[in-house]
Protein backbone atom coordinates (compact mmCIF):
# COMPACT_ATOMS: atom_id res chain seq x y z
CA UNK A 1 0.00 0.00 0.00
CA UNK A 2 1.25 3.45 -0.79
CA UNK A 3 -0.31 6.69 0.32
CA UNK A 4 -0.58 9.14 -2.53
CA UNK A 5 -1.72 12.00 -0.34
CA UNK A 6 -3.03 12.98 3.06
CA UNK A 7 -6.09 14.84 4.14
CA UNK A 8 -5.83 18.27 5.69
CA UNK A 9 -3.61 19.92 3.09
CA UNK A 10 -6.35 19.70 0.50
CA UNK A 11 -4.90 16.61 -1.19
CA UNK A 12 -7.27 13.65 -1.14
CA UNK A 13 -6.36 10.64 0.97
CA UNK A 14 -5.94 7.90 -1.59
CA UNK A 15 -4.52 4.42 -1.02
CA UNK A 16 -3.28 2.26 -3.88
CA UNK A 17 -4.28 -1.29 -2.89
CA UNK A 18 -2.56 -2.54 -6.06
CA UNK A 19 -3.98 -4.78 -8.72
CA UNK A 20 -6.11 -1.93 -10.10
CA UNK A 21 -7.86 -1.14 -6.80
CA UNK A 22 -7.71 2.16 -4.93
CA UNK A 23 -9.59 3.69 -2.01
CA UNK A 24 -10.51 7.35 -1.70
CA UNK A 25 -11.44 8.69 1.76
CA UNK A 26 -14.46 10.92 1.12
CA UNK A 27 -15.38 12.97 4.22
CA UNK A 28 -18.79 12.72 5.91
CA UNK A 29 -19.48 16.17 7.40
CA UNK A 30 -20.10 16.32 11.18
CA UNK A 31 -19.97 12.58 11.65
CA UNK A 32 -17.75 10.63 14.06
CA UNK A 33 -17.16 7.99 11.34
CA UNK A 34 -15.09 10.63 9.53
CA UNK A 35 -15.23 9.34 6.00
CA UNK A 36 -16.52 6.78 3.55
CA UNK A 37 -13.88 4.73 1.74
CA UNK A 38 -15.00 4.92 -1.89
CA UNK A 39 -13.22 2.21 -3.89
CA UNK A 40 -12.14 2.57 -7.48
CA UNK A 41 -11.74 -0.56 -9.61
CA UNK A 42 -9.98 -0.34 -12.94
CA UNK A 43 -11.78 -2.22 -15.73
CA UNK A 44 -11.32 -2.62 -19.49
CA UNK A 45 -13.97 0.02 -20.09
CA UNK A 46 -12.88 2.61 -17.59
CA UNK A 47 -12.94 2.79 -13.81
CA UNK A 48 -15.90 1.63 -11.75
CA UNK A 49 -16.66 3.13 -8.34
CA UNK A 50 -17.90 1.13 -5.38
CA UNK A 51 -20.06 3.63 -3.44
CA UNK A 52 -19.77 7.39 -3.94
CA UNK A 53 -19.92 9.22 -0.58
CA UNK A 54 -21.99 11.88 1.15
CA UNK A 55 -23.70 14.57 -0.92
CA UNK A 56 -21.77 17.66 0.16
CA UNK A 57 -19.62 20.12 -1.85
CA UNK A 58 -16.38 19.27 0.04
CA UNK A 59 -17.04 15.54 -0.30
CA UNK A 60 -17.63 16.00 -4.03
CA UNK A 61 -14.36 17.93 -4.46
CA UNK A 62 -12.51 15.21 -2.55
CA UNK A 63 -14.02 12.49 -4.73
CA UNK A 64 -13.14 14.29 -7.99
CA UNK A 65 -9.57 14.96 -6.78
CA UNK A 66 -9.33 11.36 -5.57
CA UNK A 67 -10.30 9.87 -8.94
CA UNK A 68 -7.68 12.17 -10.47
CA UNK A 69 -5.04 11.01 -7.95
CA UNK A 70 -5.78 7.41 -9.01
CA UNK A 71 -4.82 8.47 -12.55
CA UNK A 72 -8.29 8.79 -14.09
CA UNK A 73 -10.71 11.53 -15.06
CA UNK A 74 -14.21 11.53 -13.63
CA UNK A 75 -15.64 11.59 -17.17
CA UNK A 76 -14.03 8.19 -17.82
CA UNK A 77 -16.11 6.42 -15.15
CA UNK A 78 -17.93 3.42 -16.57
CA UNK A 79 -20.22 2.48 -13.68
CA UNK A 80 -21.10 2.80 -10.01
CA UNK A 81 -21.83 -0.20 -7.77
CA UNK A 82 -23.63 0.69 -4.53
CA UNK A 83 -23.27 -1.56 -1.48
CA UNK A 84 -26.43 -0.09 0.12
CA UNK A 85 -28.69 2.93 -0.09
CA UNK A 86 -27.44 4.93 2.95
CA UNK A 87 -26.52 8.55 2.15
CA UNK A 88 -22.83 8.11 3.09
CA UNK A 89 -22.63 5.48 0.30
CA UNK A 90 -25.16 6.56 -2.33
CA UNK A 91 -25.24 10.33 -1.70
CA UNK A 92 -23.06 11.49 -4.60
CA UNK A 93 -24.25 8.90 -7.14
CA UNK A 94 -26.56 11.30 -9.00
CA UNK A 95 -23.73 13.84 -9.42
CA UNK A 96 -21.31 11.15 -10.59
CA UNK A 97 -23.80 9.88 -13.20
CA UNK A 98 -24.49 13.41 -14.39
CA UNK A 99 -20.79 14.20 -14.79
CA UNK A 100 -19.74 10.91 -16.41
CA UNK A 101 -22.74 9.07 -17.86
CA UNK A 102 -21.85 6.05 -15.68
CA UNK A 103 -24.61 3.57 -14.82
CA UNK A 104 -25.61 3.01 -11.20
CA UNK A 105 -26.34 -0.49 -9.86
CA UNK A 106 -27.98 -1.54 -6.57
CA UNK A 107 -29.81 -4.52 -5.08
CA UNK A 108 -33.58 -4.38 -5.70
CA UNK A 109 -34.50 -4.34 -1.99
CA UNK A 110 -32.52 -1.12 -1.44
CA UNK A 111 -33.73 0.38 -4.72
CA UNK A 112 -37.26 -0.10 -3.36
CA UNK A 113 -36.27 1.98 -0.31
CA UNK A 114 -34.78 4.74 -2.51
CA UNK A 115 -38.01 4.80 -4.50
CA UNK A 116 -40.19 4.96 -1.40
CA UNK A 117 -38.13 7.78 0.12
CA UNK A 118 -38.32 9.78 -3.11
CA UNK A 119 -42.06 9.32 -3.40
CA UNK A 120 -43.01 9.69 0.26
CA UNK A 121 -45.43 12.49 1.08
CA UNK A 122 -43.80 15.14 3.25
CA UNK A 123 -44.66 14.20 6.81
CA UNK A 124 -45.32 10.54 6.05
CA UNK A 125 -42.02 9.52 7.59
CA UNK A 126 -42.73 11.60 10.71
CA UNK A 127 -46.20 10.04 11.07
CA UNK A 128 -44.61 6.62 10.81
CA UNK A 129 -41.88 7.45 13.33
CA UNK A 130 -44.35 8.92 15.86
CA UNK A 131 -46.67 5.90 15.63
CA UNK A 132 -43.76 3.47 15.84
CA UNK A 133 -42.19 5.18 18.87
CA UNK A 134 -45.54 5.44 20.66
CA UNK A 135 -46.13 1.70 20.19
CA UNK A 136 -42.59 1.07 21.46
CA UNK A 137 -43.44 2.92 24.68
CA UNK A 138 -41.55 6.21 24.11
CA UNK A 139 -42.50 8.79 26.77
CA UNK A 140 -44.47 11.92 25.85
CA UNK A 141 -41.49 14.24 26.36
CA UNK A 142 -39.67 12.30 23.64
CA UNK A 143 -42.63 12.39 21.24
CA UNK A 144 -43.48 16.08 21.80
CA UNK A 145 -40.78 17.57 19.48
CA UNK A 146 -41.78 15.16 16.69
CA UNK A 147 -45.48 16.05 17.05
CA UNK A 148 -44.54 19.72 16.99
CA UNK A 149 -42.47 19.29 13.82
CA UNK A 150 -45.36 17.37 12.22
CA UNK A 151 -47.84 20.13 13.11
CA UNK A 152 -45.52 22.64 11.43
CA UNK A 153 -45.51 20.54 8.23
CA UNK A 154 -42.02 19.09 8.80
CA UNK A 155 -40.44 16.21 6.92
CA UNK A 156 -39.65 18.00 3.67
CA UNK A 157 -35.90 18.00 4.22
CA UNK A 158 -35.57 14.25 4.73
CA UNK A 159 -32.15 13.18 3.41
CA UNK A 160 -32.43 10.91 0.42
CA UNK A 161 -35.44 12.60 -1.17
CA UNK A 162 -33.22 13.41 -4.15
CA UNK A 163 -31.19 10.19 -4.13
CA UNK A 164 -30.47 8.71 -7.57
CA UNK A 165 -32.65 5.91 -8.88
CA UNK A 166 -30.32 3.11 -10.04
CA UNK A 167 -30.23 2.03 -13.71
CA UNK A 168 -29.28 -1.56 -13.01
CA UNK A 169 -30.03 -4.25 -10.51
CA UNK A 170 -27.38 -6.20 -8.62
CA UNK A 171 -28.60 -9.80 -8.48
CA UNK A 172 -27.49 -12.03 -5.60
CA UNK A 173 -24.58 -14.27 -6.59
CA UNK A 174 -24.15 -12.81 -10.04
CA UNK A 175 -20.87 -11.97 -11.73
CA UNK A 176 -21.07 -8.25 -12.35
CA UNK A 177 -20.66 -6.54 -15.70
CA UNK A 178 -17.16 -5.14 -15.11
CA UNK A 179 -15.16 -6.03 -18.23
CA UNK A 180 -11.79 -7.63 -17.53
CA UNK A 181 -12.49 -8.24 -13.82
CA UNK A 182 -14.09 -11.04 -11.87
CA UNK A 183 -16.38 -9.42 -9.34
CA UNK A 184 -19.25 -11.32 -7.72
CA UNK A 185 -22.19 -9.85 -5.79
CA UNK A 186 -22.95 -11.43 -2.44
CA UNK A 187 -26.30 -10.47 -0.92
CA UNK A 188 -25.72 -9.69 2.76
CA UNK A 189 -29.01 -8.37 4.18
CA UNK A 190 -29.10 -7.12 7.78
CA UNK A 191 -27.74 -3.56 7.94
CA UNK A 192 -30.20 -2.83 5.11
CA UNK A 193 -32.44 -5.34 3.28
CA UNK A 194 -30.48 -5.00 0.03
CA UNK A 195 -26.92 -4.67 1.31
CA UNK A 196 -24.35 -6.39 -0.91
CA UNK A 197 -20.68 -7.23 -0.49
CA UNK A 198 -18.61 -7.53 -3.66
CA UNK A 199 -16.05 -10.30 -3.94
CA UNK A 200 -13.11 -9.67 -6.25
CA UNK A 201 -12.34 -13.24 -7.28
CA UNK A 202 -8.75 -12.57 -8.27
CA UNK A 203 -5.43 -13.49 -6.68
CA UNK A 204 -4.51 -11.04 -3.92
CA UNK A 205 -1.66 -8.88 -5.32
CA UNK A 206 0.17 -9.17 -1.97
CA UNK A 207 0.66 -12.90 -2.58
CA UNK A 208 2.62 -12.55 -5.79
CA UNK A 209 6.36 -12.57 -4.92
CA UNK A 210 5.78 -10.61 -1.76
CA UNK A 211 6.90 -12.90 1.08
CA UNK A 212 9.39 -10.29 2.26
CA UNK A 213 7.45 -7.22 1.11
CA UNK A 214 6.92 -4.23 3.34
CA UNK A 215 3.16 -4.06 2.91
CA UNK A 216 1.39 -4.36 6.26
CA UNK A 217 -1.20 -6.57 4.60
CA UNK A 218 1.46 -8.95 3.33
CA UNK A 219 3.07 -9.24 6.77
CA UNK A 220 -0.20 -10.10 8.41
CA UNK A 221 -0.98 -12.56 5.64
CA UNK A 222 2.23 -14.50 6.25
CA UNK A 223 1.53 -17.81 7.97
CA UNK A 224 -2.22 -17.60 7.44
CA UNK A 225 -4.29 -20.01 5.40
CA UNK A 226 -4.56 -18.48 1.96
CA UNK A 227 -8.03 -17.07 1.73
CA UNK A 228 -9.11 -15.98 -1.68
CA UNK A 229 -9.56 -12.64 -3.33
CA UNK A 230 -10.63 -9.38 -1.78
CA UNK A 231 -14.00 -8.41 -0.37
CA UNK A 232 -15.53 -4.95 -0.66
CA UNK A 233 -17.63 -5.26 2.48
CA UNK A 234 -19.55 -1.94 2.63
CA UNK A 235 -20.91 -1.59 6.18
CA UNK A 236 -21.44 -5.33 6.64
CA UNK A 237 -18.02 -6.19 8.05
CA UNK A 238 -15.91 -3.42 9.62
CA UNK A 239 -12.68 -3.87 11.58
CA UNK A 240 -13.52 -1.93 14.74
CA UNK A 241 -17.24 -1.16 14.89
CA UNK A 242 -20.48 -3.10 14.66
CA UNK A 243 -22.93 -1.84 12.05
CA UNK A 244 -26.34 -0.63 13.20
CA UNK A 245 -29.00 -3.33 12.88
CA UNK A 246 -32.51 -1.96 13.30
CA UNK A 247 -35.83 -2.95 11.80
CA UNK A 248 -36.13 -2.40 8.05
CA UNK A 249 -38.01 0.87 8.44
CA UNK A 250 -40.97 0.96 6.14
CA UNK A 251 -43.29 3.95 6.38
CA UNK A 252 -45.51 2.40 3.69
CA UNK A 253 -46.36 -0.59 5.80
CA UNK A 254 -48.13 1.74 8.24
CA UNK A 255 -50.43 3.17 5.59
CA UNK A 256 -50.42 1.01 2.48
CA UNK A 257 -51.38 -2.64 2.16
CA UNK A 258 -49.58 -3.33 -1.12
CA UNK A 259 -47.42 -6.44 -0.98
CA UNK A 260 -43.67 -5.92 -1.37
CA UNK A 261 -42.47 -6.28 -4.99
CA UNK A 262 -40.93 -9.71 -4.61
CA UNK A 263 -41.09 -12.70 -2.33
CA UNK A 264 -37.35 -12.31 -1.78
CA UNK A 265 -37.93 -8.87 -0.30
CA UNK A 266 -40.80 -10.12 1.82
CA UNK A 267 -38.71 -12.89 3.33
CA UNK A 268 -35.88 -10.50 4.14
CA UNK A 269 -38.11 -8.14 6.06
CA UNK A 270 -39.01 -9.93 9.21
CA UNK A 271 -35.82 -10.44 11.16
CA UNK A 272 -32.94 -8.11 10.21
CA UNK A 273 -30.67 -9.33 13.04
CA UNK A 274 -31.25 -12.95 11.98
CA UNK A 275 -30.51 -11.92 8.37
CA UNK A 276 -27.34 -10.17 9.51
CA UNK A 277 -26.00 -13.09 11.53
CA UNK A 278 -26.68 -15.45 8.64
CA UNK A 279 -24.96 -13.15 6.12
CA UNK A 280 -22.01 -12.79 8.49
CA UNK A 281 -21.57 -16.52 8.65
CA UNK A 282 -21.54 -16.75 4.86
CA UNK A 283 -18.82 -14.09 4.64
CA UNK A 284 -16.81 -15.99 7.27
CA UNK A 285 -17.02 -19.14 5.14
CA UNK A 286 -15.97 -17.17 2.06
CA UNK A 287 -12.68 -16.36 3.84
CA UNK A 288 -11.40 -13.55 1.61
CA UNK A 289 -7.66 -12.83 1.88
CA UNK A 290 -8.39 -9.16 2.63
CA UNK A 291 -11.43 -7.05 3.44
CA UNK A 292 -11.83 -3.54 2.02
CA UNK A 293 -14.62 -1.99 4.11
CA UNK A 294 -16.40 1.31 3.50
CA UNK A 295 -15.23 2.83 6.80
CA UNK A 296 -12.06 2.70 8.95
CA UNK A 297 -9.37 0.64 7.15
CA UNK A 298 -8.59 -2.51 5.16
CA UNK A 299 -7.93 -5.65 7.20
CA UNK A 300 -7.20 -9.38 7.00
CA UNK A 301 -8.66 -12.23 9.07
CA UNK A 302 -12.31 -11.90 8.04
CA UNK A 303 -13.22 -15.21 9.70
CA UNK A 304 -11.85 -14.05 13.07
CA UNK A 305 -13.73 -10.76 12.84
CA UNK A 306 -16.92 -12.65 11.98
CA UNK A 307 -16.46 -14.83 15.09
CA UNK A 308 -15.98 -11.73 17.26
CA UNK A 309 -19.15 -10.12 15.95
CA UNK A 310 -21.19 -13.31 16.28
CA UNK A 311 -20.04 -13.72 19.88
CA UNK A 312 -20.87 -10.06 20.61
CA UNK A 313 -24.45 -10.49 19.35
CA UNK A 314 -24.93 -13.80 21.15
CA UNK A 315 -23.79 -12.26 24.41
CA UNK A 316 -26.10 -9.30 23.90
CA UNK A 317 -29.09 -11.51 23.11
CA UNK A 318 -28.64 -13.60 26.24
CA UNK A 319 -28.28 -10.40 28.29
CA UNK A 320 -31.56 -9.08 26.86
CA UNK A 321 -33.31 -12.36 27.53
CA UNK A 322 -32.31 -12.02 31.20
CA UNK A 323 -33.67 -8.46 31.30
CA UNK A 324 -37.00 -9.68 29.87
CA UNK A 325 -37.74 -11.82 32.91
CA UNK A 326 -39.72 -8.71 33.78
CA UNK A 327 -41.99 -7.56 30.87
CA UNK A 328 -40.54 -4.47 29.13
CA UNK A 329 -41.49 -2.20 26.24
CA UNK A 330 -38.88 -1.80 23.46
CA UNK A 331 -38.19 1.69 24.86
CA UNK A 332 -37.58 0.34 28.38
CA UNK A 333 -35.39 -2.38 26.94
CA UNK A 334 -33.34 0.21 25.03
CA UNK A 335 -32.90 2.23 28.25
CA UNK A 336 -31.69 -0.94 30.06
CA UNK A 337 -29.34 -2.08 27.29
CA UNK A 338 -25.63 -1.34 27.37
CA UNK A 339 -24.53 1.40 24.97
CA UNK A 340 -21.22 3.17 24.52
CA UNK A 341 -22.39 5.77 27.08
CA UNK A 342 -25.10 6.14 29.75
CA UNK A 343 -28.65 6.55 28.37
CA UNK A 344 -28.90 10.12 29.78
CA UNK A 345 -25.98 11.12 27.55
CA UNK A 346 -27.35 9.59 24.36
CA UNK A 347 -28.51 12.39 22.04
CA UNK A 348 -32.17 12.62 21.06
CA UNK A 349 -31.83 11.28 17.49
CA UNK A 350 -29.58 8.43 18.58
CA UNK A 351 -32.24 7.27 21.05
CA UNK A 352 -34.55 6.56 18.08
CA UNK A 353 -31.78 4.47 16.55
CA UNK A 354 -31.22 2.68 19.88
CA UNK A 355 -34.93 1.80 20.12
CA UNK A 356 -34.85 0.45 16.58
CA UNK A 357 -31.88 -1.71 17.57
CA UNK A 358 -33.74 -2.96 20.67
CA UNK A 359 -36.72 -3.82 18.43
CA UNK A 360 -34.48 -5.77 16.03
CA UNK A 361 -33.12 -7.81 18.96
CA UNK A 362 -36.67 -8.42 20.24
CA UNK A 363 -37.81 -9.51 16.80
CA UNK A 364 -34.96 -12.00 16.67
CA UNK A 365 -35.65 -13.35 20.18
CA UNK A 366 -39.33 -13.78 19.27
CA UNK A 367 -38.38 -15.59 16.08
CA UNK A 368 -36.13 -17.94 18.06
CA UNK A 369 -38.96 -18.58 20.52
CA UNK A 370 -37.04 -16.94 23.37
CA UNK A 371 -39.43 -14.01 23.92
CA UNK A 372 -43.06 -13.13 23.25
CA UNK A 373 -45.38 -10.16 23.01
CA UNK A 374 -47.65 -9.86 26.05
CA UNK A 375 -51.14 -10.26 24.50
CA UNK A 376 -53.24 -7.09 24.50
CA UNK A 377 -50.42 -4.82 25.76
CA UNK A 378 -50.33 -1.23 24.48
CA UNK A 379 -47.62 0.05 24.32
CA UNK A 380 -46.16 -3.33 23.40
CA UNK A 381 -44.67 -5.35 26.27
CA UNK A 382 -42.32 -8.27 25.71
CA UNK A 383 -41.28 -11.01 28.10
CA UNK A 384 -38.89 -13.94 28.03
CA UNK A 385 -40.31 -17.42 27.49
ZN1 LIG B 1 -24.91 2.07 6.27
ZN1 LIG C 1 -21.76 3.64 6.10
UniProtKB/TrEMBL annotation:
Keyword Lyase appears in the UniProt entry: no
Annotated stretches, region: Disordered: 246-271
InterPro entries xref list: Metallo-B-lactamas, RibonucZ/Hydroxyglut_hydro, Sec-metab_biosynth-thioest
Keywords: Hydrolase
GO terms of molecular function: hydrolase activity
Alphabetized SUPFAM superfamilies for the sequence: Metallo-hydrolase/oxidoreductase
Gene3D superfamilies per record: Ribonuclease Z/Hydroxyacylglutathione hydrolase-like
Keyword Kinase tagged: no
Signal peptide as annotated in the record: none
One Pfam family this sequence matches: Lactamase_B
All residue ranges annotated as the Metallo-beta-lactamase domain in the record: 35-295
Top-level taxon in the UniProt lineage: Bacteria
PANTHER family xrefs: ENDORIBONUCLEASE LACTB2 (PTHR23131), METALLO-BETA-LACTAMASE SUPERFAMILY POTEIN (PTHR23131:SF4)
Name of the protein in its database record: MBL fold metallo-hydrolase
Organism encoding this protein: Streptomyces piniterrae
Amino acid sequence: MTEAGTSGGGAPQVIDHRGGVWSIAVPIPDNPLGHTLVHLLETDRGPVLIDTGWDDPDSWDTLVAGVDACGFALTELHGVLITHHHPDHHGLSAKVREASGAWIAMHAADTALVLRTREAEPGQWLDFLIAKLATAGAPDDHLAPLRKARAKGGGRSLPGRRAALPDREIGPGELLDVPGRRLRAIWTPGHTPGHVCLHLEEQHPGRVGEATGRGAGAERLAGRPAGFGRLFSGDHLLPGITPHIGLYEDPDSATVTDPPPSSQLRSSRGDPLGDYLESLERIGRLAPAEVLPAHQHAFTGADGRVRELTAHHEERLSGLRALLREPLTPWQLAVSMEWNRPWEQIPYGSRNIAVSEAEAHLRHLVKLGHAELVPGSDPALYRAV
